[in-house]
Structure formats: structure tokens, C-alpha cells
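Quick note —
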Amino acid sequence: MWVTVVKDPDGYKLDFESPTDEALSERGFTRNVVVSVPSFHVLLDTVRATDFVALVPERLLHGRQQEFRVFAPPLSVPGFDVIACWHARVNKHPAHQWLRELLAAIAKPIARMPSAAK
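Predicted structure written out below.
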């Protein structure tokens, strides 16, 4: 049984396809999704408290490997984009501009790294 993170902010929709589903489908498999949660952090709490399996970004497990049985996935699953968004009313707010510039400066060298190093 799988736990998954949904992109639907209401958290009600379980009929979706993700890169994981597409990679499994190419090999003739499907997931049995039993729970959908709104974030990867909630996902870890859910997996910790159940016997479910989840595919999570490796970076999320830094410092937490002892809490989980961690295995490399048996198939290659493409990554996903991480974005920042904000309301237009804060576009010119100095503190918000500073934060966006900081995020961009931090993300720029990471974006150039080979996928395996990220």
C-alpha cells in the first residue's frame, strides 16, 4: 500500500497520475494508493505510523535514515520542480524581495548540479 502526496489543495482527489505512476505503468504495474497527504513532511509522519510505502525525495531523509528502512527505488522516476509563489501585493515589499533574491541565489548552484548529486 502506498502513501502519496497530492497536488490538489483540497486533498480529496485520489484519481491522479504522477511520474511514479507513469514509471510503474511502463513496466505493467500500478500503485494501490490508500492515503493522500498535502506535504512530504506529513507523508513521513504517516509512513512512520503505518506499514505503508512511499517514494520520497532523498533530501527529505537527511538525518532521518535511522527512522526508516530506506531502499533505492527499483525503477527510475523523474524528479519534480520546486517553485516559489507569492501574492502580487508583496512584489515590491523590500523584505519579500530580499527573500526571493536569497532563494534564487541558493537555488542557482543546486540547479546546475548533476541529478545524482542533488
